[in-house]
Every structure is written in C-alpha cells, then in structure tokens.
Amino acid sequence: MIFLLLYLHIQTIHGQNKLILSGGSNACEGRVDVYHQGKWGHVGPINWHIENSNVVCRSLNCGTALETTFGFKDDHHLTQQVWADDIKCEGTEKHLWDCPSPTWGIVKSSHLQHVYIKCSDKPEPSLVLKGRTGCAGFVRLNTTKDNHVYLCSGDWEKHQDHAEQLCKTLSCGRATQSPVSHGFKETGKIQPYTCLRNDLSLWQCVDWTSARCVTPASVTCSKHLFFRLKGNAKVNLCSGSLEVYKDTTWQTVSSKDYRNISQHWSPNDICNQVNCRDSLTEPNETSSNVYLNCSEQVSISLKDAGQQSHCYGVVYLKKTKSEEAVCVNSEMIGRLVCRELGCGDFMFTSNKGIFQPAQWTGMSCENHAESLWHCQSDNCNKKNTAIICSESIDVRLSYGLDKCSGRVEIYYKGAWKRVRANDWKRVHSDIVCSHLQCGKGYREGHDLFVDGDALDTLELSLKAQCQSDDPIHKCLEENGRSNSQDNFIKVVCQDSQMFFVEKKSSCSGMVGVEQAGKSYSLSGQPGVWNDSAAEHVCQKMQCGHMANYSTSVNHTATDWMQLDCPVSSDNCTLRRASSITTEAAEVTCTDEVTLKLTNDNKDLEKSKRRCWGEVSVCHGDACHGVCGDVWSEKHSEMLCQDLGCGRPVTNLERKSPNTLKATVSSVHCPSKVSDLSRCRFVMNATCKVSTIYVVCSGSLKSKLSDPRDKCGGKMEAFLAGSWQPVCGDINVMKTICTETGCGGVITPTAADIMTNSKAKVIKCDQAFQSLVNCTVTKEPCDKQRIPRVRCSGWSRPVVVGKSACSGGVFVKTEAPERLHAMSSTGWGDRESRALCKSLDCGDLVTNSSGPTVSFENWWNKTYNCNDGDQSIWNCEEKHLPVEKQQLNISCQEHRFINLTDLCYGEVIISGKRRERVCKTGWTEFMSRILCQHLECGNPVDTDYAASPLTESLNFNLTDQCGGEIQVLYGGELKPACLKKGNTPSLLCNQVKGCGNVNSSKKSLPRRGQRKDHLSFSCDLDKDLEYCMRLSSCEKDDLTELYCDGFKEITPPPELPINFIVGVSVGLPLLVIAIALVLWQRRHILYRLRGRRAFSQTRSTLASDNFEDIELNVKEERDIGLKSQANGQGKGLDSQASSEYDDVDEEADAGFNSADEAPPLPDRPALGGELDDGDDYTDGYDDVDQLPLEEEEDPEEPGVPPQPEEGSVPVPLDEEDYVQPDDDK
C-alpha cells in the first residue's frame, strides 16, 4: 500500500501540466512552453489557428490573443521535446491540453519551430497596503484596471530573491525582514505561487489550476516609510507630531522632510497608514515638527473593575465609537502598553484579584510596532488578560520614626500590602532603603515596630537572587505558595534619625542625633544652626516648637553631624559635618515630655500609687497610653528607675481596665539616653496588645490575712492593684512581719496548698524593712506551700461561753501566751458587729457588759468602728480602757465542729450553715483535739475521705480467743497487726473473756510487708483505742495471737492423697458399672440363677459333708417358701438381683451343720449331650445360649458339678427354686 501511494504521488507530480509564454517582453507574450510529465517542451505550429491562441491567453489570465507567429528562434531553454502538434481548439476550452490533438505527448520533431503569441494584457507587480501602492504591502499582479491577482504566501519565504527582485523592480530598495502579515482587507483573488524554473517571472509562477489560498504574500522594502503620531496614549493616539521610522529609530519629521514626503504621501495616506482614517485638517508645520490631526479618536487605558487604575489592570483600547478589552497574547503587548502609558517596565501578566470583563478582542504585534494601535487583530487568549507595569509598584515604611524606618508596605494592584517576614534577607532591606533614598539596610525583624493596621498581605514573594542595586519591581515574583505566618517585616535604614538632647531636660539641652546605631553631636556653626534647624529638631523630638536656640562649646565630641535647613524646617538635610568643630547646637523647646504610671486605686498612699499602673506619656498637657506590642523589659526598668520606684515586677496579671487610648505605638531610645522622657515615641498606630501596664517594686505592700487574727495569717502582697497570696522563705516572713509592724517571726504554722497558680514567689536576700527591696519572681506558687505566719505581735479574739459565738470576750496573745479579758469600754453595736464578722459568727444579736471582775490580764486597747468594717482589728485605737467590766457578746451563728458519723467521718462546722473543713492546714494536733472533744479517743487516720476514730473501733480474733488479729474499722473487718516490741496481753485483755496471752500456744509474726493492715503500738498503761495507726505491717509484726481462753479444735485427719485419687477415679467408674447392670439386669439374673443351681448341685453331690447338703437343701426350701409367701405369681425380672442377694446372705448366716434337710431330688447333669430336637428350656433362650463348660476339678471353687451319665437336664425356672420338693 505504501509503495502504491508513493507511486501515485510521483505520477501526480509528473502528470502536472503547466503552460507559460516565455522569451517575450512580459509574462503575457512569448513562446508557448508546456511543462508535462516533469519536463519542459513546446508545441508545434501544424494547423495552429486563432482559437488555440485565445485558449492560451485566457488560461494565463492575459486577455485575448493579439498576434500569433510561427518560426525558429535560438533559445537555450528550447528543447527538442514537442509535446503536441496539430492541436485543434474550439475556443471554449479552459486549458490548451483540453483541446484535441492526435499527437499529444508523443510528438518528437527534430526541428525547432514553435508558436509565439502576444496577448492583450500586460501584467505588472505592485505592493498594496490599505488601498495604497508603495514599497510595502501585499504582493499584487495587475493586468488591467479591473483584473489583478494576489500571490499566496505559501512558498514566498523560500524565495527571498523574488522579494529582492520585486523591491528592485519597484525602485523601493531592498527587501527587509519586516513583512506585513496582517490586516489584509483588499479585494481580489489569491492564487498559489510555485516556480518551476528560476528564470520565471512572478506571473509565470502563479498556479492557475490549483485552489485559492487565504493568506497573501507580503513584502516590505527598505524605502517604505513607517509613520506614527506622537500623541498621548491616554488621550488620543491619532493626533500628534509626525514621526518616521528611519535607520532603526523613530525620528521627528521636520517641515523640510515633510515636503519630500508629501510628494508621495498625502495626509490621508499617513492617517490611513497609522489606522486613524482620514486627516481632519492640513498638517500644522513648524520648523521642528509637523502636527497631524486625524479623524479617529484612539486611547489606551488600564482598568480594574471598570475604573481607571494606575499602571496595572486590563488593557482597554478605546476608539471613537467603541471600547474593547484587549487580550495580552504576548509580552510584546505588555511592553507596548507599559511604555506608551509611561508606566515603566512590563513585569508580568496576572488575573488574580482583577475584574474580568465579558468581551475581549485579540491583538498581535510585530517586533517593529511602537504602539498597540499599530498591532493587528488576532484571536484572544484569555489566560493572560491583565498586565502589571513597574510604575504600579511602590514601597514605603510605616509606623516608624521617619520615612526610613517602619513596617514594610508594598503598593501592588492599587493597594498597600504588608510583607511577611519569612525569607526576608538583608539584600531586600538594602533594596527597600535604596528605593526610599535612605541608604542601605541597618536592621530588620518583625518586632521592631508595631504591626499597625490590618492591611492585606502581599501575595508576591521577593527573589532571593536579587542584587542590592536592583529596583524593587525586579525582585518581585508571583508564586503559588500559601503562608499562614502572621509576622510582618520591619526595617530600619541607615539614614533613619533620632534627635535627642543631653543634660538639661527632656526637651532642652545640647542636641545629639543617632544614626545607624552611632551617636553624633549636632554642629552649631553659625549660618548652619539657625531657627529653621532648631524648629526641625523640636518637631522631631515631639517637643512642640522652638522657644530658643544657641550654641555651646563641646571639646569632647569627635563625631559631628550638620543639619541644613536653607528654606524651612520641612526641607532639611542631615549630613556629616564638613569640618570638625567645637560649637555644639543647643535648643529649648516649648513643651516637655513626661512619663507617669496612673491607676484608680485609693487604698495605697500616694508614694505607693505612683509606682504602678498604665504607662502614660504626656506631651505638654496631652497624655497618651502606650501600646504594649513592642514594649520591652528594658523600658520598664528605665521607667521604674526614672520614677524612683525600684525595679519592675514582672509576670503579673493586669487587674485594672484600660483608661487611656493607646496612641503611642512604640518607644525607641538612643544609646546615650538613660531616661525614657528623652526617647522617641511613635504616635498613632493600631495595637494588638492593650496599653502597657507596669508595676514597680516601690508599689509593693504586704499584710497577713486572717479576719480573726492580728499579725497572723497567710502572706499577701499588694500587686498590680490587688492583694494576692505570695510565698517565700524565712527572710520573706521576717520582712513581712517587720513591714506590718508585728515584730519578729515566731513560727510558720499550718500551710495552705496553693491552688491558684498565679500566686508568685517572693525572694528577699535578707530580712528587709519592706518588700520594696525584694523581688517578685516569675516562679508560680502552684507547687509550694503558702505558710500561715505568726509574728510576735499575734493576737486573736476568743469567745468563752455557750459556743464559739456567744459568751465572754478574751484576746489571746502568743508572746507571752495568755488570755486577756476584753473591756466593754466604748463598745457599741458597730464594734460588736465587726467582732461577730471577724469570728465568722454572722451578725450581732446582743452585747452587754458583765459585772466588774478582777481579771489578772486585761486587754489594753479600745475600739471605734465604722459601718462596713469587716475586721475588729481595723477599729483598734490606742486609748486605754477605763472600765474593768468584761464584754459579753451573742452573735447569730452558733458554730460547732463535729463529724458526719459517730466518731468518724468528714469534719464539718455546723450552725446556721453546714460547712466542710478543707484538709489544707489541718494537722494531727487538730484531729487529736477534735477526737478528745467529742469523747472519741484519739484519731487513727486523717485523710480527705471519712476518717474512723478509735471509739468506733472493735477488736476481734478470727477464732475464739485466738487466730488472726482483726479490727472493725469503718464498718468493715480489716486485718491488723501489733507492732514489734509491744505487749500482746493488751489485746487479750481487750477481748472479753480471753484472759492473758496463752504461753503454750505460740503467736506468729507476719512474713513480708502488708500495706493494707492497721497497725497499733501501745505502752502498757494505754488502751488500744489510743494506739491505732493506718500504716504498713512490717515483717516481724504480730498478726496472730492466742489467749488463755483459746480452745483448740482438733481437725479431722487429712485423707491420704492416694485415697482421694482412688475415690475420684473409682466413683465415676462405679456409677458407669451400675448403669450397665441396670440395663442388662435380666440377662445377668438368668445367668446367675443357672450358675448358682448348677454349682450347688455339684457341690452337694461331690461333698462328703452332709451338713453342706442340708444347708443347700434348706436354702432352696426357704427360698421356695418365701416365694410362695409373696404369692405374686411373677417372674424374677423385677426382683432377681435384690432378692437373691439377700437370700444368699441369709443362707450363709443362718444355716449350720446340725440342720436337717429333706432328701434331694435327682438332678440331671449339665453339659451332657442333647438331641437336636429336645427343648428343655421352655423359652429360656438366654440360658440356652450359655456356653457349655468343660469338666473341671470338683474341688476347684466355682466349677459346677458334673451330672451322672444318662440324666436329664433340669430347666432353670422359678419353680425349681420356689418348690424344690415337687418331684416327689
């Protein structure tokens, strides 16, 4: 098949026919040459007539034949091949080879006679573009005014020599590499173009027989003029100065040049070439240019969401009557648009976040195009619909000290966007700072300034391979990465400035400036240091305006800066001083900057209140809160030191609400500045963190918290506006006792386990006078005990009477330890009510004065309370009491301490409300006091759960007066042990009726440890109830005890193992055997009866002892009588086994040799031979089936006797046993 197709293809080529006129003055005049079967030849003149010539001219689109001649002509292309002769056309044929010829293709003539024709038309080539012929355009061949044809572009590019020849023929110079390939709008045929010989003209290469093509060939010659109008692309591209493309550049057309151009190009031609239709007016000529205004209105714009956007967005081409969105099919379009709109370099295309219109038009631009308007229509590729130009990109630093420091923000797609800190490098800082004309980068990080307003995040990334001198737009690229990081980059450039003053105050003194981490003195040279420079410094320091400026001598400074403000304070330049000087600039500004801590607490004295609260920065009379985003510990240290408030207390939870608006975003201090008031404050920013809150150690105050006690209780400190529990060592306790005026520490008492992890550990290097000198650490007290401290000045009110809330009032003191009677002097309802609250006894019921009593000790304080006082100690006065009458009080609550069960259970405080007692701080001493108070002995165990007391215990031994020791503990018997070294007789005496220890029976110690045992250890004179402990029993503790009353019970002997095994195995076998016997009982009985009868008979006959015979006879008689007596007439099926066993036993026991027996009947012998027909069994088939036994020794036990010869066997039926004498 392949070879067949190849053969057909070759035959098609060889079979192609082509006819030309060659050798004439043009392509429509000359000798008739024919290309046939792959060869050139000619036709002969035999019988040639005018119809043949007309067919030739018409087939070549050359009109009609004007002249036909025949003859000989020397021509090197003339071959001896004559393809046809004697051709006879009728004049209507389409091609010459359609005419009849008897010799077509086979004529061979040695003569060189040929046919020469001259047709009516004369073809001429031209280049046509937009209806105008010139040196550029589509290749057109003209014959007459109305007859022309365009050449197809098929093989045109392969024949550059044809383009060169065409440009030369048209006197247009040389062919260039810029053919016109789009915008064909002419009318006419487009014919294929194929040259079969190099000497053929363009007309001779036209293939008139093939189908037409679509794209015409085009040529641009070097003498073609490209025009453009230098208009404003944003306004009108069809109006502006005329320019011409010459020597690879665009040149403005002068009036002189235009005079030469106008000889060949009219204003309309020029407007038409630049796609602007016709000229509206005559060109406006000046000496330097020619201004041309065409009728079309064309402009280019970039839009986002239908609105004009700056150097980014969808490209729109607006004409007089329409506006179209343009697809960006190539970077050429992007470059053209960015350049035409003055938007810098083309960066990339992007569709993200840009509104997409519904209708588009495609464009395609050649390399020489200088305007999108000069491009041609094309298909639309909607993948790239918007462009980004470099001028749409900008960068700034926000929320910083000046334009050279702050958060990096990049302007992209019409909005400022934050930049993430990941992958940011120093080279990127250099690029940003260079773009802002701020030198190079100095510092970068995400925590230098506040994050500020929540702008969108830049969706571009910065290239890592950027150079520090690259423009910012060349370092940006789109990427598909998503990053959830919320840290945004901040940068400080080298040229960022911080002005400050030294010595005098926050806004007055010698001026200095810090740049890139280095401090400089500001030069005060006359003519340079002026009022504009001084005003600039005051404004930068946020100190208002300049009040005065001067110079002073500074001999120590070596590094100087010079501030040039030639016009105003807004236009100043800071630079290195040109020469070293000793004249330093000084300034006095109108305002001062102060810092303070503010709070609304009224409990502390003023000296304490000023040392904690919100940080407030005041410029003159205006105060501002400080954002906590970038506030550092260093700032807190500087502030506490400036205020004379010690050191900052860290890691404290804020207790008070915001009262100030955070308008100071960050604080930045020059290295030479030691106080915050001379630092720089960045104003007006959005904070993530609320206003900063600082607590200095100077605000610390301590107390011991217990409403009942004075100089005793849990340690608390006033931290951040509230009293909070704290913990610490003995130095902290001594410091608190001293600060509260309570003397020295007596001892820490019961400890509370802290459940509040926010409580802090305080550390004091020694016992100070106040906590101001101590440190509040970040360490929480969640794993430490907070002791209840008693100082030497401790005292507590005690009520002695009916209850803890009703009776006479005393005051108990620690040093010395005694009770002091409370005098009723000055005592009223307010004081009594405060006392009831201190005692947690509710409200007051009554108070009264007792009779005058002569107590040894009286409390020497009086009290004067206000309404609302919660503690009696807040009312204490130093006036001595004047009356010796004791105060009696009765409160609403009657408080008692009890247990939930009898002598065990949870500890509760009863009264008007029932309260459980927390284990925190509960001690064994308290348990002992409570148990004795309740008359329950001593405590056994103290735990969170119910705790049984000794009175609820009962002792027991597992046996009567002996065995393992047990205790009835909490309603349950539990094992117990007596600790080693204790006398066991205590336990025997405790158990009723058991006496002392049984010395003959050894008590046993425990082997190993048991954690679940109760143990007890007692002295000889104590009861066991006071000895119990919940603890582990050790190895040698006594766990078994035997007393005198113990009675040992002899246990039954243990069965040997062989017996147990035998019974275990034999019993199941016996059961199986009995079951088998019951199942086969009839067969077995018959056998036993037969054997018994035969055995007895033989034994009787063979024995010489007659007594034996009598025994057998009597046995049989008794059996028969017994059967008759029963009178049942039944067989032995149901009773055989049981009855005969009994009979045998009776026979063995009842008969002896003295008994007489009747004579025995003759018995037939068993085992004798029987005739086949005899039947002696009467249906006892089972007996018949018994095998015959061989004769054995008569004396051998169990062998039946042999009958005498000739005797007849006796059938084994019931009658043989019941009535043995019937044979008589």
From TrEMBL:
UniProt keyword Disulfide bond present: yes
Organism superkingdom: Eukaryota
GO biological process, one term: zymogen activation
A Pfam entry, by short name: SRCR
Protein name according to UniProt: SRCR domain-containing protein
Main localization, broad class: secreted
Disulphide bonds in the chain: 89-99, 195-205, 365-375, 669-679, 764-774, 865-875
Cellular component, GO annotation: extracellular space; plasma membrane
Signal peptide (UniProt feature, chain positions): 1-15
Keyword annotations from UniProtKB, A to Z: Disulfide bond, Glycoprotein, Membrane, Repeat, Secreted, Signal, Transmembrane, Transmembrane helix
Record-linked InterPro entries: SRCR (IPR001190), SRCR-like_dom_sf (IPR036772)
